[in-house]
Specification:
- A 7-stranded mixed beta sheet has the order 3-2-1-4-5-7-6, sandwiched between helices.
- β1, α2 and β2 form a beta-alpha-beta unit.
- 41% of the residues lie in helices and 18% in strands.
- It contains 8 helices and 7 strands.
- It has 264 residues and is an alpha/beta fold.
- The protein has one domain: 3-Layer(aba) Sandwich (Rossmann fold), CATH 3.40.50.
- It binds S-adenosylmethionine and zinc ion (ZN).
Length: 264
């Protein structure tokens, strides 16, 4: 390799590294905004301030930062973060947080769908079920179904990096899994149908389309208790469904939680 070529390659690597570092720095500030939009979903008594003492939380698809902020502000007993590709600073936060919070913070490299590993974590942490399961900007990654692109076009070839694939979202499977883990499942999702989802990990299909949201909410509203946090809606199930188009058009992010229906 010539000296010039080697120098050029080094420069390119440095630029890439700089971009990654810039993005990771942005996680810390973005997370503050995002948590301000999510935090009311942790309130279980509307007449009182959110109190998470004695509560345990799992953050699925964690950025490791939100758990740290939640620990500082709400002081739950424990937060576990799982991610199938944990950020490198997770272990530093886990170690360093001991100096700043009494909340036990633990991070695991683990997929929501790795039952064996999840069971092992639950046993290790002596958890039966979490009070809250948070998925922030992660739900649209949890696409477990068949490739729709393949169904649409027989000639489509599913590539190894799955770049052009659109995997189906299986609401029944995913939400039952989430509700196995947490009594209340908190969902925070970006909604930008016209934007390319740059963080389309292995191209599982990008952000949900309006059509997918409608199907998801039809399912959720028929089966679970659903409460909107952003936008704050005091509408009946039918009103929510018939206004969904407007809601999705006006919002860039939505936040809601689901719980099992309470016996009347
Ligand atoms: C867009 S990031 C969201 C990060 C963070 N929760 C936030 O609010 O910024 C999506 C994360 O989900 C993780 N992820 C995707 N599929 C997953 C799965 N099946 N199990 C666990 N984590 C997953 C990815 O590794 C990625 O870190
Ligand atoms: Zn495909």
């Amino acid at each position: 390799m010539t000296k010039d070529k080697a120098l050029k390659e080094r420069l390119l690597t440095t630029l890439e590294e700089l971009e990654i570092t810039k993005n990771q720095l942005k996680f810390w500030t973005d997370s503050i905004d995002e948590l301000s939009e999510i935090q009311d979903a942790f309130n279980t008594n509307a007449n009182e301030k959110t109190n998470l003492n004695n509560n345990i939380i799992v953050d699925i698809g964690t950025d490791c930062i939100k758990p740290f902020y939640i620990a500082l502000k709400f002081k739950p007993t424990m937060i576990i973060g799982i991610d199938e590709d944990l950020l490198p600073f997770g272990s530093e936060i886990q170690q360093g947080s001991r100096l700043l919070t009494e909340t036990k913070i633990r991070f695991y490299n683990c997929s929501l769908f790795d039952k064996q590993k999840i069971d092992k974590i639950l046993r290790k942490e002596r958890v039966d079920k979490f009070d809250f399961a948070l998925t922030s900007k992660t739900l649209h990654h949890l696409r477990t179904g068949q490739c729709i692109a393949k169904k649409r076009n027989k000639k489509h070839e599913c590539t190894e990096d799955e770049k052009d694939c659109i995997y189906e979202f299986e609401e029944e499977k995913v939400f039952s899994k989430l509700l196995e883990l947490g009594k209340r499942v908190v969902v925070y999702e970006s909604f930008a149908p016209d934007e390319e989802d740059e963080d389309k990990i292995r191209g599982r299909g990008g952000y949900f389309s309006a059509k997918e949201w409608k199907r998801v909410f039809n399912y959720l509203l028929s089966k679970y208790e659903v409460k909107f946090i952003r936008p704050q809606l005091f509408l009946s199930k039918d009103e929510i469904l018939s206004n969904l188009d407007v809601i999705l058009r006006e919002m860039d992010t939505i936040c809601f939680y689901i719980e099992d229906k309470k016996p009347k």
